[in-house]
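Mods, move this if it's the wrong board.
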Amino acid sequence: MSTTTPIGHKNSFYHPKKGDIVIGVIDKKSNEEWNVDIGFSHQAVLPMLSFDGATKKNCPKFKRGEVVSAYVEEVPEAGEVILNCIGRTKNEKLGQLTGGTIIRARPNDLKLIQQNQYIDKIGQKTALKCCFGENGRLYIDTENAITTMLVANAIMKALNSEEPVTTFEKELESIDFAKK
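Not the wrong board. Structure tokens:
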């Protein structure tokens, strides 16, 4: 089993809104739900039955530190944020994210990544799975752990540079995608 290691900014300015897609880290199981860190001041709750086809006997089993993508179903004024992993459309794939790494970034940094097509450029060079969370987290996974970390480092260097696009392109060119 591979683990997912968060890198990047630890400070969070995320305030959940109903419908947001988030990337969360499982903290613990309590009763019929999991407590999930989504980068908010309080942990969110992910009910066991909030997965396609889940029943009490047939639901995902998570361990502390495992990663999920979910949407924010409810944001009560008082109490815990409720998450859900049942896709709202045919194309929405939510649930456990295995392997890979999480990049923590400010929401504006994630917009920069999208606007400058970093993910498209990576996808032209290697097999890639990614998920943008509106909570300032980006999950990426490539064909192997070394490439994933090199790509994550390229993104982080770009985000911390005064010339992010040039830095990203230079870093991406320095990665040997042929190695396995």
